[in-house]
Design a protein that fits this description.
Layout (H helix, E strand, L loop, with lengths): L21 E10 L6 E6 L6 E2 L2 E2 L7 H13 L1 E5 L5 E8 L5 E16 L11 E4 L1 H7 L3 H11 L17 H20 L2
Helix pairs in contact: 2-3
Length: 191
Amino acid sequence: MDEVTASRGKQDGRKSGGGGKRRQVAALPWRGEGEALRILLVSSRETRRWVIPKGWPMKGKTDFAAAAQEAYEEAGLDGVIADKPIGEYEYLKRLKSGAAKLVKVDVYPLQVTGEHAAWPEKGQRTLEWMTPVEAALAVQEPELRDLIARFAAVELPVEERPAPHPAPTPVQVALQRLRRRVTALWGRYGR
């Protein structure tokens, strides 16, 4: 795929049209075919949940090139990345300020052709190659789970498939944090 002739993507996490949601780009790393198909998941740094490599669009790079760069930085991967996303999903991102913001993520499949022994975030994340069903069931975001299953053309077991539930809203997250703080203070001073 020729990056030079590809159209420029959205840059710097710009808000998408009208909704006020920020956008990120992600790589869906895969290798093998048929029964040997595997998907690579990485752990997030803060919550340690299973995710795919993702980040904000990068100035001077197309969105798919930025997704490939994230795959290198977070997992040490090289490969051939598609220049069009296969889908998108939403998740709630905790910002440095402590606030939570709904982010929409465009997902680009990355056929992995090489893995580095060292990379920028080595030691900060856990990496694991999984079957498509394992990967789909390991992620928390229902839309990402379904996207992985569609990409791999697999059916998820009905008995193991969790009922989809939306990510908590920023207000719900703020109330949960407030409840934890009050409980901690009550335990400290309430006795």
